[in-house]
Amino acid sequence: MTKYLKLAAILAAVPFIALLFINGGPVDAQTQKVETAGEKFKNIKVLNDMPAEQLVRVMGIMSASLGVKCGFCHNTENYALDEKQSKQTARKMIRMTFDINKNSFNGRSEVSCATCHNGMEHPLSSPNLKPEPEPERPAQPQTEPTVDQIIDKYLTSLGGPARVAAVKTRYIKANRVEPGGAVTEPETIWFDGNKYAMETVYTEATVAEGFDGTIAWKTSKGEPIPLQPSEAEQIRREAELFMPTNLKTIYTRLDYRLVDLVDDRPAYLVTATTPGGARERLYFDVGTGLLVRRTASTQTVLGPFIYQVDYKDYKLFGGVKVPTTIEYSMPSIRWTRKVLQIRNNAPVDAAKFGPPSK
Ligand code: HEC
Ligand code: HEC
């Protein structure tokens, strides 16, 4: 257990993964019955009927809503203990939130922890006397652009569809920069068509993930780590988006919505649906045409869990633009990828992409 927890202290995403690992897989393969949190975890009193695979995201949502870490409510050596008053209060708060939604919003999860807490331990009970004005929605275009026009402009901005399509493989050396910037870990990333692999070297372990065209996988020190469906989906998307010319096959439905703001700049918002039914939002900068943000949202009992990727500092590599700063954010987990080196059409060892052999 301490081995997992030591690792957990370093890998922001791993405490959950380690816990899932210890407790076994999320779905009973024989009956296809979804395992509930009440069945899987030791000391569940409120979230009993929630699918167990939501627990990770729900804990992240609660932490981010209050602006705290897991240790605010937990003894991180043993998450099942009820040592802390804040964990008891959180149970009452979860019940209260469910009741508000049931009694006042016909059961829709309109209110969640963030509605009141908004990143604070102590919500305000009186109005802010000096509020910041809400940013205004930017001017909407007279004629709405079509999705085809938005994608064409994107591909042209990247260097043109022909040059983009000519890049068949890519090797990237990067740093994973943890929040605050003091800690960085080296990353190596490979792409080949719709295949992708990445290795991150932490002090205590090398963590790898990949997609071989069919299966998404993740390992720590070469040992497989079970993936939640939402994690597998994002590893797959990382692979697919290497080929921006394939946007219309990656997503079977693309709809233009409106002009929104991303970091104070107007951006076309396009909603995107995958063949598997996953919904994402793509934001293309109105001025440069480049993809600047992608969000994927999955439902939980405490509202949507948002996974956001911001693409910044596009630079030319062999005539094709690639973002060199990529920010990954989700409730209570954030990091930035800083690209150090890119080689297009470099030879790539096909064995990199396969799932670990058992
Ligand atoms: C605001 C308080 C709060 C925060 C912050 C919080 N948790 Fe929890 N956690 C709870 C409560 C409450 C439960 C029990 C829920 C229930 O009884 O239905 C719980 C249960 C758990 C369990 C199940 C333990 C068991 O076996 O019974 C795990 C694992 C867990 N949390 C992990 C985490 C992790 C990892 C984090 C940080 C990302 C985190 N929690 C952050 C309040 C919190
Ligand atoms: C309707 C508003 C509202 C919602 C929704 C809400 N809270 Fe609270 N919460 C409060 C108020 C008000 C307090 C008391 C603040 C204080 O002590 O100053 C509080 C206190 C807390 C505390 C105790 C903080 C401390 O330092 O003692 C915890 C923990 C907490 N909430 C967790 C949650 C969680 C987790 C959720 C979502 C499941 C949630 N709250 C949803 C209003 C809300």
Would you give an account of this structure?
- The chain is α+β, with helices and mostly antiparallel strands.
- The protein has two domains: 2-117, Photosynthetic Reaction Center, subunit C, domain 2 (Orthogonal Bundle); 147-353, outer membrane lipoprotein receptor (LolB), chain A, CATH 2.50.20.
- 26% of the residues lie in helices and 30% in strands.
- It is built from ten helices and 13 strands.
- It has helices at 2-10, 14-23, 37-40, 55-66, 85-104, 113-117, 147-158, 161-166, 229-240, 247-250; strands spanning 169-177, 184-192, 195-201, 206-211, 216-220, 223-224, 253-262, 265-273, 279-285, 291-298, 305-317, 320-330, 333-344.
- A hairpin with a 6-residue loop joins strand 1 and strand 2.
- Helix 1 runs antiparallel to helix 2 (14-23).
- It is globular, with a radius of gyration of 22 Å.
- Bound molecules: heme C (2 copies).
Summarize the structure.
With 358 residues, the protein is of the alpha+beta class. The protein is 26% helix and 30% strand. A 13-stranded antiparallel beta sheet has the order 6-5-4-3-2-1-13-12-11-10-9-8-7.
Order of helices and strands: HHHHHHHHEEEEEEHHEEEEEEE
In total, how many domains does the architecture comprise?
2
CATH class of the largest domain: Mainly Beta
Q: Summarize the biggest pleated sheet.
A: 13 strands, antiparallel
**What structural category do the secondary elements indicate?**
alpha+beta
Molecules bound to protein: heme C
Our count of helices gives 10
Low-confidence stretches: 1-29
What is the number of beta strands?
Answer: 13
Physical arrangement of strands within the biggest beta sheet: 6-5-4-3-2-1-13-12-11-10-9-8-7
CATH topology of the largest domain: outer membrane lipoprotein receptor (LolB), chain A
